Amino acid sequence: MIKIEKLDYRGWANSWRMSNGEVDLVVTGDVGPRVMRYGFAGGQNFLKEFAAQMGKTGEATWQPRGGHRVWIAPEDAVKSYAPDNDPVEIEVRGGEIACTGPVEALTGMEKKITVKMAPSGSGVELIHEVRNAGAKPCYLAPWILTMMAQGGAGIHGFPPRGTHPEMLEPTNPLAMWAFTHLDDPRWRLSRKYLVLRQDPNNANPQKLGAYNQRTWGAYLLDGELFVKRYEAVAAPAAYPDFGCTFEMFTNADILELETLGPLTTLAPGESVSHTERWTAHRDVKLSAWTDQELDAVVLPLV
After folding, report:
1. Range 196-225 average pLDDT
2. For residue 206, which of 227, 192, 188 has the smallest C-alpha distance?
């Protein structure tokens, strides 16, 4: 049975917790829209929280803050970083919570996250919407970013592998940024998987992106595994950043698991939606980080 209750969360009095007894999730109505917690009931929060920014509102510039949010791609130093520091409208209906932010003065976009939780187990569905409330068309893609807590490891699976010469066509891009260093010890690239370790003592940013029709990213933190999934709805050419549906970023503070929707032109009044599905899993242990071990331990959970 799903229970939804209002609470003060880390200084944000207008917050809501959703729980089915197995997992719980918190959204706040004081900033956002943002999901600020997801984890097993009474357990650790998979999501990063910037302690000094908790409970604060109304800042003039965008704040990292932590949690899970909606942005627009391609990344723009101004438009992507539109502040989300004002109250959002919270609507509790049945077993779901809808969080709708105010129209952004900077972009004319209205962003919304609707959260639905399974009656049992750890499953959560998150529907993200971006609506053009401005007067001009806007070319964008929904970009969904989850900031993970420090000290874990991000995992992404490539599309199914094959052999040459039986498979001659490329299967996916692997996009790099100017600051991507493949010799960074936090990376591990294997035949089937991309792994990135979060290290609080390493401030150098790292990022890679890829395409997978069955996109998923996972994060192993203290023996618990967070998984998010997204089903691509178009070919790589339709997606931002040379065709990425998934991107993984880290610095000393966070590791981000990011999914992206296809690029589209939104006319005034039009909207685009993007759905992710989350699960959490206990007692997950990895030691060798080989393809064989990831196949056996992680793949059945995604």
Report:
1. 98
2. 188
Separation between Cα atoms, residue 209 and residue 231, nearest integer Å: 16
> Do 15 and 6 contact (CB within 8 A), yes or no?
yes
Q: How is residue 19 written in tokens? A: 């729980």
pLDDT of residue 94: 86
Distance CA 102, CA 118 (A): 28
CATH T-level fold of 3-301:
Beta-galactosidase; Chain A, domain 5 (2.70.98)
Buried b (16+ CB within 10 A) or exposed e, 9-35: bbebebbbbbbbeebbbbbbbbbbbbb
pTM over 0.85: yes
pLDDT tens for 87-129 read 999 999 988 999 999 999 999 999 999 999 999 999 999 999 9
- The alpha-helical segments, DSSP class H, found in 102-258 are 240-243
Alpha helices per DSSP H over the chain:
240-243, 291-297
Instruction: Parse the chain into domains and list their residue ranges.
Output: 3-301
Helix (H) or strand (E) holding 215: strand 214-221
**Residue closest to 206 by CA, chosen among 214, 195, 191:** 195
Residue appearing with tokens 């200084």: 11
List b or e across 130-169, with b for residues whose CB sees 16 or more CB atoms inside 10 angstroms. Answer: bbbbbeeebebbbbbbbbbbeebbbbbbbeeeeeeeeeee
